[in-house]
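Suppose you are handed a protein chain with no further information: no name, no annotation, nothing but its sequence. What can you learn? This example shows the usual starting point.
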Amino acid sequence: MNTDRHFKALMIVFAMLGASRAALAQTPAPIPLQTALPMPAPQMPVLPTATVYRTDTSIATIMKVDTVLSRNDTLETFVTMQVRVRRVPVPPPPATTFFFSVRPALSLTQNAFQNWVEGGVSSVAWLAAASLNFDYTSPDIIWQSRAELNFGQTKLDTSYLKKTNDLIDLSSQVLFKIGSVFYPQALFKLRTQFAPGFDYATEPARQISGFFDPAYITQSVGMAYYKSDSLNFSVGIGLRQIVTREFAIYSDNPATPQPEYFNFTSGIDLNAVWLVGLLPQVSYRVHASAFSAFDRLNVWDYRIRNTLRFVINDFLATQLGFTLLYQDLASQRIQWQQNFLLTLSYNFKNF
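A reasonable first move is to predict its three-dimensional structure. Written in structure tokens, the prediction is:
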């Protein structure tokens, strides 16, 4: 009895499937998406050509979903949806920007010995430094101002404090934006020191320099190649003043009988900066400047500062510096200075 019922149910199912196939054979195939009826393109408003836009696309509403069994027993699903496309105006960058960066730094070294039979000298050494950068950009100019300030002293055992670092280095440059990387430029530079300097090779020590004694001041106009802060070069016609008050050795012209405490010359002024990242936390920077007077173009005064910087974190960094200096009036020899520092510093900036 149960077998007869099962047999009849199977026969009914097969009959229904056969009727479905016959109906599908007489039904036209659904229109594929590629041959769907064309729809009129939406009318887009005319947008200002000077404005920059971005396009945002999102699915707003799924209106209908149809699933159809085609002739080859393939299920096809047709989704009718509404898509929203928006063109959003992108605000232009500000025409005028101002950025600043101020990085103070401090380094301290101290050693103390008492009854130390292996030998040693108590000492303390410290260095305070600051690097300041100010950048102003407008549609017409780029104005950059820099300041490097350093002062350090050391004391060995019972001796008095001796100066180890002393620098005031200021510069301000204006670039006139009439090209892509080449700009007319005007430059001002000042280099001097904070405190008196002494020659410790004599006893007692003899003072040989002081604040604004000497001071090297340069103004120049010319052309600059400025690709970025990491690579730039300038050449110009410059005026240089060497100002002294007591120590005329830095400004005196040996060809004249009287000492000159103010030296004024015109000549060619060269400046270059190159900064390269060697590793993610290691950078190498070269800052070079040179000046030659028109009446002595075979003699160049120059200063080349090399700095290798290792950044440990936001507060700690090590720095290896090496400076070459040649000043024809002060000395016929190439002067050099080297230092290695572990500094505690932090960069205050608005970008």
